[in-house]
Amino acid sequence: MTETKTNYGKLTAGLIAAWFVTAAASSALNLLKGAPGQPPIPILIAVLTPVVAFSIWYGGSKPFREWVLSLNPRTLTLIHAERIGGLVFLAMYTYELLPGMFALPAGWGDIAIGVTAYLAATRLIRNHRRAFIAWQLLGVLDLVVALSMAAIASLLHPQGITTAPMTELPLSLIPAFGVPLFLILHIICIAQARRWPAASPHRIVQATGPIGA
Question: pTM for this one?
Answer without folding.
Answer: 0.90
